C-alpha cells in the first residue's frame, strides 16, 4: 500500500516537473521571438536595480531611450565588439577560444577572468539577474542559445547597446551618451565610444566623462583594436 502511494506521488511529481519545464521552454521561446521584432520594454537588470533601491530606501530614476540600429553610432558598435568580444560575428554564442585561455590562466595560478560574449551578456541583461550561481549560468546558456538561433547578430548587438548598464540608473547607449557627453547615441566620436566601452567592466565605479588613468589606457587600447579590426567595415560581417 505504501509503495503504491509512493509511486502515485512520484508520477504526480514527475508530471508537475515536466509540465513546468515545458511551460518555461515555451514561454522563453515566445519571449525571444517577440523581442526579435519588438524592443524589450526593459531588462531584468533594470528590475533588479529598482528592487534594490526599494529595499535600501535609495530612490533611483531609470534613464533609458530605445534607439534602432541605424540611430546607433558605428563607433559605439565597433568599440564594444573591440572591447568585449572580437570574435562576435563568428562564434555561436560562446567563445571557446577565450574560455580555454581563461581556464588555462586559472590553472597557471592567475585569477579566473571572465570569457563572457556579447550574446551571453545580452541574454543575462534582458532575461536574468546579476550575480554568480550555477543556476543563473545554466539559464544564461539556454537564453544565449535561443537568441543566437532566433536573432541575427545585428539584433543581438542592437539589443545589447540598448540595455547595457553605464551608470546608476543609466541604461542603453542613448541615455549613456547624454549622461556623460550631452550627445546623442548617433553622434558619438571614436574617443567617446571607446571611453563608454572602457567602463563597461565596472560601470558603477568608473566614469567615461572623468576617466582615470586605467580607463584612459583601456580606451586607447580599444581604439587601436577598432583600427586593427578594420574600422566600420567590420560591421558588415554582422
Task: Describe the 3D structure.
This protein has 238 residues and is an all-alpha fold. It has 2 domains: 1-37; 38-235, Biosynthetic peptidoglycan transglycosylase-like (Penicillin binding protein transpeptidase fold, Orthogonal Bundle), CATH 1.10.3810. The protein contains 10 helices and 2 strands, in the order αααααααββααα. The chain has helices at 2-37, 44-55, 74-84, 96-107, 118-127, 134-150, 153-163, 173-181, 190-198, 213-228, and strands at 165-167, 170-171. A hairpin with a 2-residue loop joins strand 1 and strand 2. The longest helix has 36 residues, at 2-37. The chain starts with a helix and ends in a 10-residue tail after the last helix. The relative contact order is 0.15.
Q: Which homologous superfamily in CATH is the superfamily of the largest domain?
A: Biosynthetic peptidoglycan transglycosylase-like
Alpha carbon gap, first and last residue = 63 Å
User: What pattern of helices and strands is seen along the backbone?
Assistant: HHHHHHHEEHHH
Gyration radius over CA = 20 Å
Using the coordinates shown, work out and report the CATH topology of the largest domain.
Penicillin binding protein transpeptidase fold
Q: Summarize the biggest pleated sheet.
A: 2 strands, antiparallel
Q: Strand tally, please?
A: 2
Q: List the strand order in the largest sheet.
A: 1-2
Number of helices: 10
Tally of structural domains: 2
Strand content: under 5%
- Helical proportion? 55-70%
- The global form is globular
Helix/strand-derived category reads mainly alpha
Name of the level-1 CATH class of the largest domain: Mainly Alpha
Low-confidence stretches: none
Mean pLDDT across every amino acid position:
89
